[in-house]
Fold this sequence. Notes:
The protein is mostly beta strands. About 10% of the residues lie in helices and about 35% in strands.
Amino acid sequence: MCTSAAEAVSPYFSGERYELGRPESAPTTMWFKSILLLLAAASLGLSAPNARYSSTTRAGWQPTSPRTDRRSLLSRDTCTLPEEIPTAAPKANPFVALSQQEIDDLANWLLAPAQGLNLTSTSSPNISLSDNYIWHIDVLKPNKSDVLSYLDGSGAVPRYARVTLIQGGLRVPIVAEYSVGPLPISNSTQIGSLDNIYNGPNGARLLWSAGPVDPVRSAAIDNLMNMTLSPIADMTNDLLDMAFYGSSDNRSTMTYFMQSPASTDGERTLFWSPFRRNVMEPWDSPSDLYIQFDITGTDASLWTSLKAVYNLQVYDSVQDFYNAWKDGNVTKSPPPATDISFLYKNQTGPVRDLEDRFAPTILALDGNRFKVDRQEQYVEYLGWTFYMRFDYDVGVQFYDIKFKGERVLYELSLQDAIAQYAGNNPFQAGTGYMDRFYGIGASSIKMIPGYDCPYHSVYLDGNYSTTTQQAYTQDSAICIFETDIGTPITRHNNPVWAQATKGSQLVVRMVATVGNYDYLWDYGFFVDGTITVDAHASGYIQGNYFRPDDEGQWGPRVAETLAGTLHTHVMNFKADFDLIDEKNTFVKTDIVVENITQPWFTELGAFEMMRYNISDVETEDDGLINLPPNGQTMFTVVNKDQLNEWGVPRGYRVLPGLSNVILASQNSPFFLKNAQFAKQPIAVSRQHDNEPSSTATLNQNVPQAPLTEFYKFFDGESLVQQDLVTWVNLGMHHYTRAEDIPNTLMSEAHSSIMFAPQNWGNTELTKDLSNAVMMYAEGPENQIVIDTNGVEPPACLPLGPEDSLVGVFSVEG
């Protein structure tokens, strides 16, 4: 609890002047109250209503000792719990998830014989690989043109569903996406292929073998694993100290994983499986055994095992491997460690000095300064307004982002989070994850108060539809809070005045645990008009079996039989700028260095100097952009038809932040055409309703024949005063280390980008903030004025004498 020694310390006296060196100028009680609140103001960055007083020190006043001060101040008033402030969105959110009724109606409509789809219900106990059935029903994100017509006028937003069908019963089995609508179901409802939003060689479909591992296929794969591994249990027990008899068999002490991608174009599905000890976190209990499998086609009786690799020896078949072991021709490597205590995240060792105290935290002591419409997922904060939607594939997304009533971005949304691995074995070397395929939004977690999010955060649910045809709500999938940015947003001192303005931002946070990794995304809305995206990673590394002869080329040893694995994370974001309107231009401002002569420096002759070279990115032919060395290019989205007071186009800067990496291997067969968005830091294209995303959920297993091929967006169209989309990447090269055990540290696994006003206003955009202080001298005696704009700190905040504003500023002479 936050308390104060003063029973009545508010309000600040206003409009009066006290010279603290003269006792008769102010009663002792009023002076003491003033000091307490001045200390509070300094500590919190909150300030008093036009409080004015001199900066000299009052005679005879002595502060208490730190320990006594701490105890005595924590005694009385209690901070009130911040209340959630409701608001009403100007219009209903056009991005609402499907309701259970809508999902049920859609499923019944699709299953009806009249549609001719020959679908089997997923609840059928006899469903098979060669059946047609529904994999996923989700809302189809509406076209931008329809949404803007609705938000800015009186247009309607048609409501459609995106339906993914696994069609194993066709002559050529496929997995395909369809649109169904308009909704609600009526006589006018139709089903059609979603070819219009997918530009790959097969449109909105892929061959069945490259599809998702749903429960039907998973059961068939588990059966194949059992048939392969049970007969060689004596060998795996000897070499690996573990065996597999099926996932549901209690005798199984081993578990398996599927390599991703498992195909290149869907014609054939081959994957390598590593085998790991079936413990709490099997990611970090790998063995030295890998087996390749062929699971092509809908007839599981034709599925088979192929090669085996153990101790880096390649065997043409599992039987050949088994025979070699029987003959005593297999050199044994150490089995995975049985002691997994290194994976536990529990407090161990001596407690650090003062660690028994509660760690600093973020508190809104004076109440929240943002408003939320929960029903419409709409937020207002100090000039910012925006809508949110939640998506099974990627989680939280933002729309119609405005600052002080003017639109900045139509859309800001995660597109995919991918990971490219390396390693001296067939599984790690062949791994390229596209986490959208596994459902980033579906992997969102309920936040842990005080740890994932500050206490008193506002929590919003994530609503989406699952692959089991259920409308699902993830409680507290999003948290919203305001935080001090840790520095003033502006400040200055000179001999005659001093100024500082409080720096704050609203943070919208989401966390998703996708397999072994936990990703945290922060979307920050600063009081100066800046928007930031920060990505952090933690969780368990996908470790490699430690081999001394690898000499750390793919990662260092981090445990008894475990090595880290070099890999790269890339997260792609869509930033659809609409600066006032949809007519924007992407501008490059290069710092060029050249030899010049100047008439006022004749004695220097030619000398080196820098200047700007400003140019438009005129067409999509130049829209794939790399970062220059030394940060010597500024990238800006501007609206040439909207000028500020000084005749300069209003704009926003795209400012790369920490660790904006791209794929290290540009030509990997596992990220050939399906992840082209991750091969340059920034890309700029024309916005089209039929190019809604840089990737597709089903891109994972078709690197040579993806549904969405990003580079096809770039076909020479003009980018000058057009509706533009900027695609930006965050990421990290993960140089694995011992400190990744048990969990990767978010302090290092961090990447960011910033979108900052660039001539958006006529001056900097914080002059209207009240959380600021001005100090200056006034009158013949240079009496110090401290003007704090009428903002009071709460009475519950304990402060020390070092927090006083008195004496901070003085005028010599």
